[in-house]
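Exercise 7. Given the encoded structure of a 343-residue chain, write a plausible sequence.
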């Protein structure tokens, strides 16, 4: 593992966070079966599953989540791990176990539109709305201070969450986050939601594995990765397949339309970037012309640029790893993560 650490200077100015009362329905917490179909997924979850039921955009919705207590003497800290677009709460299982054995309470939500959470037929997806839903979940759990760990799209959401609610974020960890560049400004052409929906609807084991192998694992494959492919196939072919595909099209449009890269300088929490430096993920790359494709997804450069732009940031790079270092090389990843959190 190659490690580069960059510490940026805290911005001399400060922007007072805008504090708003929770206007969305406060909601309620209940138990849910970890097995069987829930909102279009019958994947078995590794820890007891709960649901947060609430009203949003005039709809009754629920977020499925796992709430793992510490397995040693509690350190009084709570970590929330936010999944990426092609991931779910269970993909954080190994990380959650590591954190719980370090004394953390760990919360693993599925965002609305994903996995075992509600699949609304119509929803205004924004990073702000996903952040707001997440904040209200924490509020319902009486959590007022949290370490936020986000991967991929979850990393992009974590940036927005930390900009919206800096007063509750103790530390911020970004694992190969999306949003380190503005794809649209770099030339990615617009793709209609109807076209995105058609592409999402065509997803199957072969297409998902091919994409993950080339992007997440740098062309390599281990049979243990199949569980995460099948987790997605289960939803794309499940009881709410069409609605799920449409929601994912809306999510892609959201991410393409809402760059966070221009606001890195406003982040207040101490931040860690964990970057597999062979990652080449970029939304819209597959439908962009070759000259645009060549500009996109260079995480060996993007990680350094982000660390320089974010105040009080550290960067740890993993040589020869792709988009999911926590899956591809978990021992090195967790040693780096826990070392930073404890340090």
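Solution.
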């Amino acid at each position: 593992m190659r490690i580069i650490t960059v510490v940026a200077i805290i911005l001399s100015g400060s922007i007072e966070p805008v504090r708003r009362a929770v206007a969305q329905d406060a909601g309620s917490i209940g138990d849910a079966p970890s097995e069987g179909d829930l909102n279009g997924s019958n994947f078995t979850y590794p820890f007891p599953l709960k649901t947060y039921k609430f009203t949003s955009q005039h709809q009754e919705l629920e977020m499925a989540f796992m709430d793992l207590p510490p397995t040693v003497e509690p350190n009084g800290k709570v970590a929330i791990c936010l999944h990426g677009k092609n991931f779910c709460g269970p993909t954080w299982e190994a990380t959650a176990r590591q954190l719980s054995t370090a004394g953390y309470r760990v919360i693993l939500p599925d965002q609305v539109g994903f996995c075992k959470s509600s699949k609304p037929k119509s929803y205004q997806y924004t990073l702000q709305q996903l952040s707001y839903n997440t904040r209200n979940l924490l509020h319902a759990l009486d959590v007022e201070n949290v370490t936020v760990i986000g991967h991929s799209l979850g990393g992009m959401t974590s940036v927005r969450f930390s900009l919206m609610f800096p007063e509750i974020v103790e530390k911020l960890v970004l694992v190969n986050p999306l949003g380190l560049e503005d794809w649209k400004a770099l030339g990615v052409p617009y793709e209609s939601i109807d076209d995105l929906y058609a592409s999402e609807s065509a997803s199957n084991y072969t297409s998902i594995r091919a994409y993950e192998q080339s992007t997440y694992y740098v062309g390599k494959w281990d049979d243990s990765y199949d569980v995460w492919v099948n987790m997605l196939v289960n939803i794309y072919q499940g009881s709410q397949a069409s609605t799920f595909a449409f929601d994912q099209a809306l999510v892609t449009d959201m991410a393409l339309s809402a760059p966070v890269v221009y606001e890195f300088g406003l982040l207040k929490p101490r931040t860690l970037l964990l970057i597999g430096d062979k990652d080449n993920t970029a939304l819209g790359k597959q439908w962009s012309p070759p000259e645009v494709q060549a500009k996109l997804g260079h995480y060996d450069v993007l990680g350094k640029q982000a660390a320089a732009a974010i105040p009080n940031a550290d960067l740890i790079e993993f040589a020869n790893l792709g988009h999911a270092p926590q899956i591809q090389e978990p021992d090195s990843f967790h040693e780096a993560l826990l070392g930073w959190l404890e340090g």
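Remark. Confidence is low (pLDDT under 50) at residues 1-23. Students should compare their own answers with the one above.
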